[in-house]
Design brief:
- The protein has 145 residues and is of the alpha+beta class.
- It has one domain.
- 30% of the residues lie in helices and 30% in strands.
- It is globular, with a radius of gyration of 16 Å.
Amino acid sequence: MSFSREDCEYTKFDIENHKMEFSADEDGILISIPFAENAPQCIKDRLNDIIFHEMNKYLETVECLSMPCNLRLNARMQIQYSNNESASHYYLSMVITNIPEIETGTWIDKDIDISSETVGFQSEFISYCQYQVNKTLFPFRLEKG
């Protein structure tokens, strides 16, 4: 058995994340942006590709795996700013778990560094992340513009 691309579309899962998160430590700052329906199509397509690949890869190691409608998806776009580096790093991150989580349940965790993606994808991804951060932190600037 394997999953089809249609089975693995992000819309088939129970979406877990709904708010932007910020965390900081002595090394830098992580901004974690929830995946949303208004994300550019190229980002949705890449997320679907990752889910398809990782679900089928995981299925090779287990006897059975729940259908996506019975699984929880936490998909995020992440910006990692490090105090020790001159440039930020951008990631597409996803975690798939059972609903509810059980100790021996499903756990698929994948982060994709977008620096390995096409320049066009990188540009779209970074622009979307900037828009989402600005919308959250500086909403008055967007209303005037």
